[in-house]
Amino acid sequence: MNKYLLSFMVMTAVIFSACAHQKKTVKSKVMTESRIQQIAMDRTPCFGTCPAYRVTVNKDGKVIFKSWAYTTYEGTYEKQFPAEKVAALFKQFSQYRVDTCSPEYNSLLQDVPGVSYTITYPDSEKTITNAHFGPQFLKTLSFETDSFSKVDDSWTKTAEAEKR
Fold first, then answer.
1. pTM for this entry
2. What is d(CA 62, CA 81) in angstroms, rounded to the nearest whole number?
3. Which of 58, 85, 149, 150 has the largest CB neighbor count within 10 A?
4. CATH pick for 38-158 out of 3.30.1560, 3.30.1380, 3.30.160, 2.30.29
5. pLDDT of 161 above 50
6. How far is 140 from 47, CA to CA, in rounded Å?
7. What is the pLDDT of residues 49-66, one digit of tens each?
8. How many Å apart are CA 161 and CA 158, to the nearest integer?
9. One-character DSSP codes across the chain
């Protein structure tokens, strides 16, 4: 019995002393600014009526939508977006490390509208072709980037559509 009591007391002392010396840590919220200067995403046409356009999101919030086919608003349009929204998109691209993606993914199907990216950094540029056949996060990023391509009457038309 004394053996069990002694073991119990030693275990209790170890547990309480371990809890007493815990170091409290505080999560630091270090926000690193993205090095990305610009993200351009192209949606390429198919043999049918797939929309074909490019949306270019600049670091300063200026967004340019340039349509070639099968969109409600055809031509080139511009709009200023809040810096916070642009920073959130750029942060996602940085967190997913798109700079390490392959420059091209093989197209597995014919007549599928494509997605390609051109990401501009201060000292370089990264192009990703056929991104829709790459990692799943590239598809997720395409939907996030598309949130900047919802042209409406608040956009300013700067040029007529180019025929391709």
1. 0.78
2. 6
3. 149
4. 3.30.1560
5. yes
6. 24
7. 999 999 999 999 999 999
8. 10
9. -HHHHHHHHHHHHHHHHHHHTPPP-------PPP---EEEEEE---SSS--EEEEEEETTSEEEEEEEES-SS-SEEEEE--HHHHHHHHHHHHHTTGGGS-SB----SSS---EEEEEE-SS-EEEEBSGGGS-HHHHHHHHHHHTT----TTSEEEEPPPP-
Closest residue by Cα to residue 56 from 46, 43, 45, 69: 43
Characterize the bridge pairing of strands 115-120 and 52-58.
Answer: unpaired
Ranges of each domain in the chain: 38-158
Q: Tell me the C-alpha to C-alpha distance, in Å, between residue 156 and each of 13, 57, 62, 85, 145.
A: 72, 15, 11, 19, 19
Rounded to 5 degrees, φ, ψ at 48 are: -105, -135
How would residue 34 be classed by pLDDT, with cut points 50, 70 and 90? confident
The two structure tokens encoding residue 87: 């920073």
Token pair listed for 85? 């929204």
Q: Pull the structure tokens for residue 120.
A: 């501009």
CA distance 164 to 148: 23
Give the span between the Cα atoms of 61 and 158, in whole angstroms: 17
